[in-house]
Amino acid sequence: MNLPNRITLARIFMIPVMMMFLLVDFDFYPSPIQFGDYSLPYNQLIAVIIFIVAASTDGIDGYIARKHNLVTNLGKLLDPLADKLLITAVLVSLVEMGSVPSWMAVVIISREFAVTGLRQVALLDGSVVAASSWGKVKTVTQIIAISLLLLNNFPFAFISIPMDVIFIWLATIVTLYSGIDYFVKNKHLLRQN
């Protein structure tokens, strides 16, 4: 249990705490942050801070593991699992809150499961499906979209630009495209099995 794996486990343990702040209705919350028409409940602010910290640990644990030669099989299993759990949990929470259409969450989550399945097929074949540049763009757009949604479109709400809506659409399109890209580039794995 090295440092990168501990960071990854910490990311996993942050998920239920984040969901608690998003979904549990506590009576003792102070009144929301208000600026004119803009409003942000404190529980959402805490949840978005947890989400951003958790999402940022993904790059940190990978960097430490590669730099200090601490890459382990446990880390290879936990890191992508932690990413998928984080995104899935927050998307399900946002659907419950009415902030994301359920079909978008289904498209994004389905892509994650499909690519994970493709990676498993590749492992059985003795090969590895490397992360693509589209996969990295997908991750960034998802994190930006989720952060904007959790912040109720701050700061763009003040200038009436629905960046949260724009980015969740962009994240859905890029997620779908990156999933198709993985399957097209690795179709040989499906023909062999």
From TrEMBL:
<keyword id="KW-1208">Phospholipid metabolism</keyword>
<comment type="pathway">
    <text>Phospholipid metabolism; phosphatidylglycerol biosynthesis; phosphatidylglycerol from CDP-diacylglycerol: step 1/2.</text>
</comment>
<feature type="transmembrane region" description="Helical">
    <location>
        <begin position="165"/>
        <end position="184"/>
    </location>
</feature>
<dbReference type="InterPro" id="IPR050324">
    <property type="entry name" value="CDP-alcohol_PTase-I"/>
</dbReference>
<feature type="transmembrane region" description="Helical">
    <location>
        <begin position="6"/>
        <end position="24"/>
    </location>
</feature>
<keyword id="KW-0808">Transferase</keyword>
<comment type="function">
    <text>This protein catalyzes the committed step to the synthesis of the acidic phospholipids.</text>
</comment>
<keyword id="KW-0812">Transmembrane</keyword>
<dbReference type="GO" id="GO:0008444">
    <property type="term" value="F:CDP-diacylglycerol-glycerol-3-phosphate 3-phosphatidyltransferase activity"/>
</dbReference>
<comment type="pathway">
    <text>Lipid metabolism.</text>
</comment>
<dbReference type="InterPro" id="IPR000462">
    <property type="entry name" value="CDP-OH_P_trans"/>
</dbReference>
<keyword id="KW-1133">Transmembrane helix</keyword>
<dbReference type="InterPro" id="IPR004570">
    <property type="entry name" value="Phosphatidylglycerol_P_synth"/>
</dbReference>
<keyword id="KW-0594">Phospholipid biosynthesis</keyword>
<keyword id="KW-0444">Lipid biosynthesis</keyword>
<dbReference type="Pfam" id="PF01066">
    <property type="entry name" value="CDP-OH_P_transf"/>
</dbReference>
<keyword id="KW-0472">Membrane</keyword>
<comment type="similarity">
    <text>Belongs to the CDP-alcohol phosphatidyltransferase class-I family.</text>
</comment>
<keyword id="KW-0443">Lipid metabolism</keyword>
<feature type="transmembrane region" description="Helical">
    <location>
        <begin position="85"/>
        <end position="109"/>
    </location>
</feature>
<dbReference type="InterPro" id="IPR043130">
    <property type="entry name" value="CDP-OH_PTrfase_TM_dom"/>
</dbReference>
<protein>
    <recommendedName>
        <fullName>CDP-diacylglycerol--glycerol-3-phosphate 3-phosphatidyltransferase</fullName>
        <ecNumber>2.7.8.5</ecNumber>
    </recommendedName>
</protein>
<dbReference type="InterPro" id="IPR048254">
    <property type="entry name" value="CDP_ALCOHOL_P_TRANSF_CS"/>
</dbReference>
<feature type="transmembrane region" description="Helical">
    <location>
        <begin position="45"/>
        <end position="65"/>
    </location>
</feature>
